[in-house]
Structures are given as structure tokens and as C-alpha cells.
């Protein structure tokens, strides 16, 4: 059995004895609080009190019917829209402190989007925790005509965990959605866009459309130079014909400049080019009643609207029919980050064997290197912005040799598997 040896607070993993550790980060330090105990950084198999191990409040969804309906494939990657003239705007990792501003922008511009929501990440607490601002943001998303998708419970890299953990990542998010909405989504996006045949097969069994993208404007890589992302968007629409072309787009509502600057710029571009900003379901020509699942297997068409009789713009109401059952009323207020978060739910680790520690996985979206160093040990930086030397070696150097790109290559912080140009630098 795996075990832990502590030297001060520094930990070493070896193969004897038993585990007696509550919380353990990817850097192998024990501790408490946001930096140690929050997904996706906290190593849930070695720290049972990691927030990703906490089952959310809500109904058990595992036995809900999971019929495959409609023409959109289940359990396999979807990269393109089928409806010409559409741009499916998608936003990962939220809700977050910038999400309400994004909703305001989309509303002002008449744009629809899909939000791939992570249930519990970055120390924000559970999305259905009534003490946070997240429930009212999710209600507003649906009331405004946007689509909700799943981005797993705690943003784990699915190919690196066993099937029991993959199932838990999906079902825990379902429970939180069902607690809020009376239903859960049929569309999902794998964290880090990482999946494999086994994961796809399980996602298909669970009744999910596995959604990727064919336009990444990379706002998370260029927050300090957002004009780079604007250039990507401008080139993407240059010469495109709305009679024949479409895009399935990705951005993140956890990135300030993506919301403040990039999204308005992108909307100007796509509207000027004659495109329409829509949900993923619409761009795939999938009827709205197929976007969610209810407990009885019947997925009714959602009817949600703001109550025009509301006496105050700050106290709108939501009216709905099953399976999306909303609170009768909710407030739109400025969201705020919630960290550190002291949750109250019990710790419920998933069954299954402990996976090996993997320090090559990023905690959040990595930032571009400025000095040729990369990985967790060097500020969570990536080499992917480098034109040639874009592999991150096991020792944290960017390069393009076999030593950088093969054995020990840190896949979360650059390209791995192919090498060619020799950097002549450190490995």
C-alpha cells in the first residue's frame, strides 16, 4: 500500500505502511486552507478532506434514466458545429467573480452561450451552496437563454484517474445541478480537453455529449497581452462565409481580460462577419429538450423567463416547468470569490485504487514562460507559447530535444511526444 513519510511538513511517498494524511497538494506538502485543500490542486487520494471528495447536497442521480436521444453523438468527441453561420460561444471553469459581467455583456449584445461549469474548484465552494453567489448566477444563465454543460465536479484530468473516480466526477456535478435545477446537463467538456477511449466510453454510458472546440482564442494564455487573442479571433473570421462556415469556440469566464476585453471584441467580429452567437445545442441543431435529463427520463422543453411583473430590477423572478425547477426568486448581486472555504459536507472519497502522483498536471491554466523555465516549480508556467522550444522537460526547461519532449515531459506545460529541433540548452 502507498504510504507517506513526513520530514517536517515535506512528504515522500513509498510502498509500505499506511496513509495518515488529511490534505496534500500536488507539490507534496501537507497543510490546511485554500492552497492545500482546494480542487484541482489537492491530491484527493492522499488527503480525504480535499474539497473534491465532498459530496454535494442534492438527490442521488446515478439511477436516473440516461437514454440516447437525437442525432448528436454520445461518448465521442464533437469539434464542429453543424449549422452554418453560427458561433457557439463556450466558457469553462466558472462560475467566478467575472461571470456576472460576462452575462451582462452577452445580454446587451443579444448573444447566447454555453457555460461548462465546474462544481467545486479554485476554493470557491460548491456551486449549489446557498451561502455563495453561484446559484443566482446559474439561475440567471438559464433564465437568459444560455445553455448549461458539465465541466466535472473538481476539474481533474480524467485519463489519469480510474473509472470510479471519473464516474464520481460526473455524478457529483449532476447532484449539484439537480439540487439547483431539478435536472442535469447532457453536454460536457473534459477538463484540459483530455480524454481517451475508456473515458469516452464511460461518458457515453452516462449519456454525455463530449464537447471540444475548433476555435481557441487563448485568453487564458495572454491575459497580459490580450491583443494576441484578439489577433487570433480576427484571423479566424477573415474571409469566412456565414453561408458555409461555423465555429465551436472556447474561452474561460475565470479570466478577467477574456471577459472585459476579448468577448466584446469577438462579438464585434462575428456580428460584422454575419455570424450569430449561439449555444452549443443550437449550433449542433439539437432540440432544447435534449440538453438536460430529469429523474423520470422525460426531458421536457425548458420554459424559463424573467417575470416582467417584478417590482424591482434587482429582484427578478424565474418561472419554469419541470425538470428545471428554480427558486421562486433570486437576487442579481455582485459575485465575490469565496476562499478559503469551510464546507460542511462530509468527506466521501471515491472507491478505487490510488493513482500515482503526477506533478506534470497544472493546477489551473498555466501562464506563458518568460525565461525558458516551466512547470509547477517555476510558477505554473508553460512552453506552449514558444515557436520551437515548446516541450517542458522533467526538470522544468523548455526545449525541443528528445530529453525535453519524451521521457519525463510535463504534458500540462507544453507539447510532448514529438521532437525535432535541438535547443542545445538545459534539459
From TrEMBL:
<dbReference type="InterPro" id="IPR036861">
    <property type="entry name" value="Endochitinase-like_sf"/>
</dbReference>
<keyword id="KW-1015">Disulfide bond</keyword>
<keyword id="KW-0732">Signal</keyword>
<feature type="region of interest" description="Disordered">
    <location>
        <begin position="287"/>
        <end position="320"/>
    </location>
</feature>
<dbReference type="InterPro" id="IPR011330">
    <property type="entry name" value="Glyco_hydro/deAcase_b/a-brl"/>
</dbReference>
<protein>
    <recommendedName>
        <fullName>Polysaccharide deacetylase</fullName>
    </recommendedName>
</protein>
<dbReference type="GO" id="GO:0005975">
    <property type="term" value="P:carbohydrate metabolic process"/>
</dbReference>
<dbReference type="Pfam" id="PF01522">
    <property type="entry name" value="Polysacc_deac_1"/>
</dbReference>
<keyword id="KW-0170">Cobalt</keyword>
<dbReference type="InterPro" id="IPR002509">
    <property type="entry name" value="NODB_dom"/>
</dbReference>
<feature type="domain" description="Chitin-binding type-1">
    <location>
        <begin position="371"/>
        <end position="418"/>
    </location>
</feature>
<dbReference type="InterPro" id="IPR001002">
    <property type="entry name" value="Chitin-bd_1"/>
</dbReference>
<keyword id="KW-0378">Hydrolase</keyword>
<keyword id="KW-0479">Metal-binding</keyword>
<keyword id="KW-0147">Chitin-binding</keyword>
<dbReference type="Pfam" id="PF00187">
    <property type="entry name" value="Chitin_bind_1"/>
</dbReference>
<dbReference type="GO" id="GO:0008061">
    <property type="term" value="F:chitin binding"/>
</dbReference>
<feature type="domain" description="NodB homology">
    <location>
        <begin position="85"/>
        <end position="278"/>
    </location>
</feature>
<feature type="disulfide bond">
    <location>
        <begin position="391"/>
        <end position="405"/>
    </location>
</feature>
<keyword id="KW-0119">Carbohydrate metabolism</keyword>
<dbReference type="GO" id="GO:0016810">
    <property type="term" value="F:hydrolase activity, acting on carbon-nitrogen (but not peptide) bonds"/>
</dbReference>
<dbReference type="GO" id="GO:0046872">
    <property type="term" value="F:metal ion binding"/>
</dbReference>
